[in-house]
């Protein structure tokens, strides 16, 4: 069965960076795009970006450009999201979510979420 | 960026009643690339509906979606206690992929 297992909760200070991992299993890793979505407390989900696991190419939402890096390790079928220069309003639960094979943003499987808290 | 608006903000109904949730897009969604997700507290969103009206795998038939262009709706035909959740619409055809603010469904 498809599984996306994320790394544990993080507490960071403003200005620091955080790297969240998402270990995938149960499907052909290179056949499906992977997305990152975050959800601040009491808010709706917000899309951060997408990675093509086969080519390693990425695209991020404009508000995160220059501040987010999406990477993958095909040997371990794991994707990573690193967010730099953290601010207090980056406090949120971060999810990886599997997309389709075409790059559209329809998410059929989700990780369990990783709480990132930014506080001085 | 496509902006999605949802109403009502909260819906309180009795078990067995019909729930109708609305979602409007700021521009026409190509090929009706509109999805609905259900999110329960402490959980990730769960895909219910894609392509505006196609139920995802394993979703009960009391959930149905309709609409086209800019106006969409999700109907729960007979509300059950386990349907208490926040429901989000999402457009997935144009990057950035955006979500609505959600409708919270409660049981009276």
Keywords for this structure?
heterodimer, A: mainly beta, 7-stranded mixed beta sheet, 4-stranded antiparallel beta sheet, B: mainly beta
Describe the structure.
- The complex is a heterodimer of chains A (120) and B (108).
- Chain A is mainly β.
- Chain A contains no helices and 11 strands.
- Chain A is globular.
- The termini of chain A are far apart.
- With 108 residues, chain B is mainly beta.
- Chain B is 0% helix and 50% strand.
- In chain B, strand 4 and strand 5 form a beta hairpin.
- Chain B is globular.
- The mean pLDDT of chain B is 97.
Rg over C-alpha atoms of chain A, rounded to the nearest angstrom: 13 Å
Number of strands of chain B: 11
Tell me the number of helical segments of chain B per DSSP (H or I, 4 or more residues long): 0
Q: How much of the polypeptide of chain B forms β-strand, as a percent range?
A: over 45%
Structural class of chain B comes to mainly beta
DSSP helix fraction of chain B: under 10%
The average pLDDT score of chain A comes to 97
Query: What overall geometry of chain B do the principal axes of the alpha carbons give?
Result: globular
Low-pLDDT stretches of chain B: none
Give a concise summary.
The complex is a heterodimer of chains A (120) and B (108). With 120 residues, chain A is an all-beta fold.
Write the layout of secondary structure elements.
The complex is a heterodimer of chains A (120) and B (108).
Chain A lengths: L2 E4 L3 E3 L5 E8 L8 E6 L6 E6 L6 E3 L7 E6 L4 E6 L8 E7 L10 E2 L3 E5 L2
Parallel strand pairs in A: 2-11
Antiparallel strand pairs in A: 1-3, 3-8, 4-5, 4-9, 5-6, 7-8, 9-10, 9-11
Chain B lengths: L3 E4 L2 E4 L5 E7 L8 E6 L6 E5 L3 E2 L7 E6 L2 E6 L8 E7 L6 E2 L3 E5 L1
Parallel strand pairs in B: 2-11
Antiparallel strand pairs in B: 1-3, 3-8, 4-5, 4-9, 5-6, 7-8, 9-10, 9-11
């Amino acid at each position: 069965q498809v599984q996306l297992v994320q790394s544990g909760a993080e507490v960071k200070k403003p200005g620091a960076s955080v790297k969240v991992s998402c270990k995938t299993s149960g499907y052909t890793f290179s056949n499906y795009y992977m997305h990152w979505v975050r959800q601040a407390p009491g808010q709706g989900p917000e899309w951060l970006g997408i990675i093509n696991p086969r080519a390693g190419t990425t695209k991020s939402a404009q508000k995160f450009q220059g501040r987010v890096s999406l990477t993958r390790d095909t040997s371990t079928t794991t994707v990573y999201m690193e967010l730099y220069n953290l601010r207090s309003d980056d406090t949120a639960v971060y999810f990886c979510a599997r997309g389709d094979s075409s790059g559209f943003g329809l998410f059929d499987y989700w990780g369990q979420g990783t709480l990132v808290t930014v506080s001085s | 960026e496509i902006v999605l608006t949802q109403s009502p903000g909260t819906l309180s109904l009795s078990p067995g009643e019909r729930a109708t949730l609305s979602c409007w897009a700021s521009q026409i969604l190509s090929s009706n690339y509109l999805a609905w997700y259900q999110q329960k507290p402490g959980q990730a969103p769960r895909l219910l509906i894609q392509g505006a009206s196609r139920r995802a795998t394993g979703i009960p038939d009391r959930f149905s979606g309709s609409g086209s262009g800019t106006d969409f709706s999700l109907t729960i035909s007979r509300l059950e206690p386990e349907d208490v959740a926040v429901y989000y619409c999402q457009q997935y055809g144009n990057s950035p992929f955006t979500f609505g603010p959600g409708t919270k469904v409660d049981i009276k």
